TrEMBL record:
<keyword id="KW-0862">Zinc</keyword>
<keyword id="KW-0489">Methyltransferase</keyword>
<feature type="binding site">
    <location>
        <position position="285"/>
    </location>
    <ligand>
        <name>Zn(2+)</name>
    </ligand>
</feature>
<dbReference type="InterPro" id="IPR036589">
    <property type="entry name" value="HCY_dom_sf"/>
</dbReference>
<dbReference type="InterPro" id="IPR051486">
    <property type="entry name" value="Hcy_S-methyltransferase"/>
</dbReference>
<dbReference type="InterPro" id="IPR003726">
    <property type="entry name" value="HCY_dom"/>
</dbReference>
<keyword id="KW-0479">Metal-binding</keyword>
<feature type="binding site">
    <location>
        <position position="222"/>
    </location>
    <ligand>
        <name>Zn(2+)</name>
    </ligand>
</feature>
<feature type="domain" description="Hcy-binding">
    <location>
        <begin position="6"/>
        <end position="300"/>
    </location>
</feature>
<protein>
    <submittedName>
        <fullName>Homocysteine S-methyltransferase</fullName>
    </submittedName>
</protein>
<feature type="binding site">
    <location>
        <position position="286"/>
    </location>
    <ligand>
        <name>Zn(2+)</name>
    </ligand>
</feature>
<dbReference type="Pfam" id="PF02574">
    <property type="entry name" value="S-methyl_trans"/>
</dbReference>
<keyword id="KW-0808">Transferase</keyword>
Length: 304
């Protein structure tokens, strides 16, 4: 059975919830990859693309129906710092989609590919994607995102994942940047409580997506599992669209020590509450691996 979807993602979401993959970086590290570079997992698009395909395949085996590409940290500017020109950088962005598509080849069910468009702060590689308020104008944000969006769209993903957005201003810039690219999008914010990382109410952040037909889902990612249910309720109420959620493991990142601390609080058993509140795409982000996604998939499929 072919893994290339015959069904638009929006139609599939109308039928019921789908399971996303988990953290790509933690799976790559489990495979022995060194991600200490400023490009993070995007470095492997050039240096060892087979590892990325292996990581995607691990999530397909676990039951993921949507794979998010390794392009979160990828940008023309980031690749330029590695000595790569625009043509080479655009080819690597397209490669991220190809690798995810290849990894879905052995699946017996439809698998969709979401091309990751990370925030401006991810390119800076200084943690500012978790703060927002970059001091950069809306026009400059739009100009930064547009070339990478065009390159990813050219590779034919099923959806663009505008993800881990810390700031409502950047969310609006991203929605302008994707106009006319010909690919549906989802928009997810990184949040704390009922606010974006930059401190805006989620109601304000989600509002521009409500009447935007290109947006097939809205939600949150890279946040504490405890913040998800409230965010789902807000997203569903403000936009009336399917909601996408993929929180972190719940451990805290100690930037000074460069290590994770505290207990993991990600519990696949929460999926019932998420779906009840309006979630239709559910998965995991940092430190959520194939084992947890497998547990989540079993629960979601059990609901059917």
């Amino acid at each position: 059975m072919t893994s290339v979807p015959r069904t638009p993602l929006a139609e599939a979401l109308a039928r019921g919830p789908l399971v996303l993959d988990g953290g790509l970086s933690n799976q790559l590290e489990a495979q022995g990859c060194d991600l200490s570079d400023a490009l993070w997992s995007a470095r492997l698009l050039a240096d060892d693309p087979g590892q990325i395909e292996r990581a995607h395949a691990a999530y397909v085996r676990a039951g993921a129906r949507v794979l998010i590409t390794a392009s979160y940290q990828a940008s023309l500017e980031g690749f330029a710092r590695r000595g790569l020109g625009r043509t080479e950088a655009e080819a690597l962005l397209r490669r991220s989609v190809v690798l995810a598509r290849r990894a879905s080849g052995a699946a017996e069910q439809e698998v969709w590919v979401a091309a990751s468009v990370g925030p401006y702060g991810a390119m800076l590689a200084d943690g500012s994607e978790y703060r927002g308020r970059y001091g950069v104008g809306a026009g400059e944000l739009e100009r930064f995102h547009r070339p990478r969006i065009e390159a990813l769209a050219a590779a034919g993903p099923d959806v663009l994942a505008l993800e881990t957005v810390p700031d409502a201003e950047e969310g609006r810039a991203l929605l302008r940047a994707v106009r006319g690219c010909g690919v549906p999008v989802w928009l997810t914010y990184s949040c704390s409580g009922g606010e974006t990382r930059a401190g805006q109410p989620l109601e304000e952040a989600f509002a521009p997506a409500a009447e935007n037909d290109q947006v097939v889902a809205v939600g949150v990612n890279c946040c504490a599992p405890e913040d998800v249910t409230g965010a789902v309720e807000i997203a569903a109420r403000v936009t009336g669209k399917p909601v996408v959620v993929y929180p972190n493991s719940g451990e805290g990142w100690d930037a000074g020590a460069r290590r994770w601390r505290g207990p993991a609080t990600y519990d696949p058993g929460r999926v019932g509450a998420w779906v009840e509140a309006g979630a239709r795409l559910v998965g995991g982000c940092c430190r959520v691996g194939p084992e947890r996604i497998g547990e989540l998939a079993a629960l979601v499929e059990g609901r059917g």
